[in-house]
Amino acid sequence: MQQIDVLVADDHEILRFGVTKYLASSEDINIVGEASTGEECLALFKQHHPDVCVLDISMPEKDGIETAKELRQIDSKVKILILSMHIDKEILDKVLEADINGYLLKNTEKADLLQAIRSVMKGQQVFSDPISKLITNSYLNKSESAEKELDDLNITKREREILSLIVDGYTSQEIAKKLYISPRTVDTHRFNVMQKLDIKNTAGLVRFAIQNNLVSPE
């Protein structure tokens, strides 16, 4: 079983204690540090280089979004999971701009948090259900300008389908099964979309979809 080194940052001591206590009870999780501020998180990250950072948004000195951006600058491969009580489109946009791997609400079940850490380590993006619904609702009313941009960039119908499914959190294997194509074909379409949009990662695709009000397929 792969060992996952985790750093937890939250300015609420009781909540931070509960999260770390639970995670540490799992054989594959190793808690390398706890931080109460953004600056403390950055210092501990430089010292321990964990695989996953679990960050609250509201922290003193530097909030979780600012901290996530700096962590990404230090190590582009680190997995960043936001754990917050906040949920609105403005915050969601800022979180996605920070190139995070997951966004969970603090009322998330303990087992779901543990599974989320394991999932982001596999390269997946993870969102609480209310966050996923917010993402979907944010682009239910598609704009003509977004459609025109996609047309101008020669984004095909199939590529749009796959883009929407990626935004909905499906893996390449799940998309392949849903669309009756091979995972390699999915990855090829994903690569082509990212090339056409000049986007380098899945978080960027999600951000593009939200900003341009794209429609998720039924």
SSE layout and pairings?
Elements: E1 4-9, H1 13-24, E2 29-35, H2 38-48, E3 52-55, H3 64-74, E4 79-84, H4 89-97, E5 102-105, H5 110-121, E6 126-127, H6 129-138, H7 144-152, H8 157-167, H9 172-179, H10 183-197, H11 202-211
Parallel strand pairs: 1-2, 1-3, 3-4, 4-5, 5-6
Helix pairs in contact: 2-3, 8-10, 8-11, 9-10
Short recap of the structure:
54% of the residues lie in helices and 13% in strands. The chain is α/β, with parallel strands linked by helices and 218 residues long. The chain has a six-stranded parallel β-sheet, with helices on both faces.
Would you write up a description of this structure?
The protein is built from eleven helices and six strands. The chain has helices spanning 13-24, 38-48, 64-74, 89-97, 110-121, 129-138, 144-152, 157-167, 172-179, 183-197, 202-211; strands at residues 4-9, 29-35, 52-55, 79-84, 102-105, 126-127. It has two domains: 4-136, 3-Layer(aba) Sandwich (Rossmann fold); 139-211, Winged helix-like DNA-binding domain superfamily/Winged helix DNA-binding domain (Arc Repressor Mutant, subunit A), CATH 1.10.10.10.
Number of folding domains? Answer: 2
Head-to-tail CA distance between termini = 37 Å
The level 1 CATH classification of the largest domain is Alpha Beta
* Coarse structural class: alpha/beta
The proportion of strand residues reads: 5-15%
Question: Which overall shape is indicated by the principal axes computed on the Cα atoms?
Answer: globular
Q: The CATH topology of the largest domain, please?
A: Rossmann fold
CATH architecture of the largest domain: 3-Layer(aba) Sandwich
The counted number of beta strands is 6
Order of helices and strands: EHEHEHEHEHEHHHHHH
- Rg to the nearest angstrom? 18 Å
Q: Identify the strand order in the major beta sheet.
A: 2-1-3-4-5-6
Under CATH, the homologous superfamily of the largest domain reads Response regulator
Q: Estimate the helix proportion, in percent.
A: 40-55%
Total helical segments: 11
